[in-house]
């Protein structure tokens, strides 16, 4: 199956990619101005540098795509030295420059070499010297040496990212002799033996899948064979920080091609490395390491079944999301995380769901995303209880659900539908649709933003309750407001005078 995945429709894909690749770099007017400014400085100061734009910008321009990520290599000095001379030159000409700075070494952010930047026409341009790299066995942080263009090209992750655009000659340079052809044919290949490339820096494994997924390119057969090796998987697990894994996964989860990319993670046995569960003894995970494989398989199958839904959620029809990417992120990550919800582990003095561990620790996602994903998965069970009730006769549970779910309420409906579909592919979407229709008909889709018509101080005075009871009263007030959407504060006060006891239980 895996071999078929990497070979299928190769001829069609090659034909498609050939029609997209151009033979030369076509510069925009702004790019022309920027590069002419840089070359004017070089020629006026006679510094004799050979300047080359490297990597993604060259690839994207040859594919006919625009790119604003311009990285320029220098052959005879550091990026900092070059930019400092450029800054002094511009200032001597009374030309305003800004954005001057140096990014120091930061391996956690994949900054293995100091990079200098300067803004030209309000666009940041990075400068770095050509380099070669050597690695130690236990780290993906390289030892940097000043290199040749050939060394710089071969140290890169993929041949399609190893191309240069020489500013001096205005020519495309392909020092690996494979980059242009692979770009033309839609091929993902490493410049060196993939075993060397991936053992040196295992993050390149994830980047390989990212670019293959993004462009729909074919991965050469040698790559999955190497990734399947246990020592390569171990290198990915031990040498790459969770922050870097999280950055790569953030891109994948936001992509509409997420399943295509993560399918490869599953087939090559990387799922448990990416979505790592608590394994240390102090975590006291409720599921032993040897038994965690079942949950990882369920997680993959949950994502797989998401794309089989007869009523697949469409971003433009889902409430609460600002972009397709934001919606993709949540629907994909929630689908992946749902099977882990019942696993618990010890976090400090408390027991928490493994979902929190996966999102916060394994993927290093921000607190808001962690809370949102956990709550969405948790509230699926609360939604199931609502399905067994006459909603229009029981606003209390409905309002409590909406207040907890916030803008994720409609996403949760689809997560429940996904769970039902996995049990029975013929399951109907009718109830879920009727629930959605009811929420909109009652104008409750943004009810989580509604404020109680009377505040905490007024509640305390009216009911003479302790602070811990105020929340309960306020909740009941919101339920009343949901049932009486056009009511004013005066209407509420009048109702309270006659039905005060309804708002407090066991006063």
UniProtKB/TrEMBL annotation:
GO biological process: tRNA 3'-terminal CCA addition
Keyword Transport listed: no
GO molecular function, a single term: RNA binding
Keywords recorded for this protein, A-Z: RNA-binding, Transferase
Domain Poly A polymerase head: 51-189
GO cellular component: mitochondrion
Similarity comment: Belongs to the tRNA nucleotidyltransferase/poly(A) polymerase family.
Protein name stated in the entry: Poly A polymerase head domain-containing protein
